[in-house]
User: Fold these one by one.
Assistant:
Number 1:
Amino acid sequence: MRAIFAYLMGLLFGVGLMVAGMTNPAKVLGFLDLAGAWDPSLMGVMVGAIIVTLGIFTLTRQRGVSCLGAPLQWPSATNIDRPLIFGNVLFGVGWGLAGICPGPAIVGVGAGVPQAVIFAAAMLLGMAVHGVLTRKRS
Amino acid sequence: MTIDWLHFSPWTSLLGGALIGLAAGGLMFSLGRIAGISGILAGMFSTTGNERVWRVAFVLGLLTAPVLARLTVGLPVMTFEASPTTLVVAGLLVGLGTRYGFGCTSGHGICGLSRLSARSLAATLLFMAGGFVTVYGMRHVLGGAA
């Protein structure tokens, strides 16, 4: 049952990304290009997504348990530390270079776009490198 | 600043955003989990059993969304401008950055802001700033060399 819900939410998420235009790197770069002809559309994506998510999160928090009876796993970290700052700047630079973030990369792979496959492979490699580097340290 | 009215699509963006919100909210409502794509992707490799199953199922959903689109209304436009080298560098940075930074556009930008998390607000402002500065450098300093 969990797998079916997870699959459907992934599917819906992917459809949302396509409808929103997030799967088109040219459109994402148009949003990130403040000094050029700026396309503010992605602000709309954020607003639409946050309104709905905030509503469902509030409702779910009031229920106290998920509809499948699972405990709600809210992130507990609140500190703004060096890895958070370093990591998100790095992510932003990568996002700006190609106009692709993780969700749209996977949708692009599903669409069979060769560039998305190259990007996604490099992204997974980057994640693996992080895993190796942090494992060594601890 | 000039607005690109030709490409500005407020209604489909809001609708697409609402669908993304329905999925992100829906994952918390049904499984009690945060829909952070980078975390789910990385978790596919670092977890086992049931923890792996739901992550793989979610990613399969993302992968089959364009298949569904192709079979019905057709695929949306996906214009990739970056060269293969740029794609590799960008992919590595996004992979590394989202793990060090504990999230991406979905986990921090949508779920985190919807939880009113100051940590995710900081993360979102930082990756947005990184993106703005990078595109400025690429397009207006280097002149779109990539």
Number 2:
Amino acid sequence: MPDTTPVVLPDIETEAESRSELDAGYLVVCWDDPINYMDFVTHVFQQVFGWPRQKAEFHMRQVHHEGRSILVREGLEKAEFYVHQLQKFTLHATLERDS
Amino acid sequence: MKLFRATQPALIIQFSADERRMFADVLLEYPAVPEAHQQLSRSRLSPNDDEHQQLLDEALAAQRAELREKVQLWLKTPKRFRRVKGGFNFALLRTDTAWLLQVLNDVRVGSWLRLGAPDPLPEIDELFGQPRERFQHWVLMEVAGRFQMQLLHILQSGSIA
């Protein structure tokens, strides 16, 4: 992923993340690739999930440094919807079972 | 390509004559990513995986058809680009920015795939002596990316509180 953004502080997940979200059985995962610009990935995360920039950048950096980031845990239908939205922007996103 | 003025419904963007031509050329390359390129999952999810993959393929194909038509209509709109001193202005509705970014990134990623999805991305001097077609893919990948980043920058600088 081409580096175009400044370093930002990591986002801290709040405990307010709902139990139903954690219990949901499917993960929306974004994978690293060398072609999507970091700024673009951040922008897409903001657009698709409605996240603030700091949270979107945290996940973008996780993709870049760790090879992937789990973006959300959801039920099948909603997770499929998110994967489709991300793929519309040609991000490398997939749906995985939460083991 | 730079922001000339930002209003609530639209961004007024200024192009040089060369940029205007290249911008249209890039948009006309859409779609560049092959059909059925995207996979729903890297693992086996359920016995209905094929059905889910088919639904995803159909949804993406419908989107491609819709965007291809939108690009054609958008470029054909009379007076889309208004001649001004030093180049052209065009009004980009903020509601049009999402699909425009999708189109530009499709062309960038599709050009990269045509190059064989190299990782890391090649520098231009690595393409010297290679077939002309590969050089064209590289240029398209870079130009689409340049417009994409400029548009993102314009969106960020043109935000209205």
